[in-house]
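User: Sequence recovery, please. Input:
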């Protein structure tokens, strides 16, 4: 019932006989049982939709609950046993407010997904929790921040009926970038005026033209990421600039690449543009991948703290 956007014909209800279609009450063992027993239904439904045009799979789950934390690894493993395409996971880490049991579930799920998935994108609820707002209202804001970059990222390189970018980013670039622990970042600016909410202070770069400034600044280290990480530990990085064709220049893209390369050091850097006629905004997206657990503070704390408390 919570899936407001996904058409009903594309939804699959599992666990009707065991849980009457409800959740599993944070019970990972029960969640794993339900998804394992009904993975055949999931597989048949995916197969019936046709997968000849699929470049990769993305399994999205909240890692604190019972169904998502246990079911995501089962689905990832099942898809990999059937298809040759890479299978990625997008995992939402619970905030501190969501309790120890949810953090324990997340720890186990991260351990399993890191071994099974071809890449694990992290979104930290603790980082994006809005102070002073009830958790439910914070969820709405966090959901928006999480999903905003995906239409651009997933449509990049699709040129049917569209303009071709100066430097095209397509599925092969994303696949070559996405590996291991990954964080994302995005920011957006209107081209008519200088609106750069992600810049902490004005610098000499503010004197540049809005479009060039945007293309460079959208890959600045001050952009807010889905999870905090040590940028110098990134092994692979990708940037995408989406916006009006007239505002996306080769010079701006190359300067953005150069800036990002300075930030991530020796990491492999890919990137390009995605022209969208009719829009008045430039959206910049970052994909930072191949990060060690030790260089993601929240993940390191979550894994270590849960372990020590279990021992106590």
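Assistant: Recovered sequence (312 residues):
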């Amino acid at each position: 019932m919570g899936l407001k956007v996904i058409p009903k014909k594309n939804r699959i209800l599992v666990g009707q006989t065991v849980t009457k279609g409800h959740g599993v009450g944070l019970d990972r063992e029960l969640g794993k049982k339900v998804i394992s027993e009904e993975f055949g239904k999931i597989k048949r439904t995916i197969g019936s939709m046709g997968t000849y045009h699929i470049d990769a799979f993305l399994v999205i789950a909240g890692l604190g609950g019972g169904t998502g934390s246990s079911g995501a690894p089962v689905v990832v493993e099942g898809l990999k046993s059937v298809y040759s395409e890479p299978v990625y996971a997008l995992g939402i880490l619970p905030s501190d407010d969501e309790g120890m049991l949810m953090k324990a579930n997340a720890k186990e799920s991260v351990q399993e997904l890191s071994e099974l998935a071809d890449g694990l994108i992290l979104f930290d609820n603790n980082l994006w929790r809005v102070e002073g707002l009830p958790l439910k209202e914070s969820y709405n804001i966090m959901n928006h921040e999480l999903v905003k970059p995906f239409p651009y990222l997933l449509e990049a390189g699709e040129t049917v009926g569209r303009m071709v970018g100066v430097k095209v980013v397509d599925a092969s670039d994303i696949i070559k970038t996405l590996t291991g622990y990954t964080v994302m970042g995005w920011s957006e600016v209107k081209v008519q005026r200088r609106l750069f909410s992600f810049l902490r202070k004005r610098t000499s770069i503010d004197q540049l033209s809005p479009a060039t400034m945007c293309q460079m600044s959208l890959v600045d280290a001050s952009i807010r990421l889905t999870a905090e990480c040590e940028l110098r530990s990134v092994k692979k990085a990708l940037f995408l600039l989406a916006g009006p064709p007239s505002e996306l220049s080769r010079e701006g893209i190359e300067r953005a690449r150069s800036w990002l390369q300075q930030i991530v050091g020796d990491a492999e850097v890919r990137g390009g543009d995605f022209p969208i006629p009719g829009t008045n905004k430039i959206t910049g997206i970052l994909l930072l991948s191949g990060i060690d657990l030790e260089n993601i503070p929240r993940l390191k704390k979550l894994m270590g703290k849960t372990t020590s408390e279990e021992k106590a």
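The radius of gyration is 20 Å.
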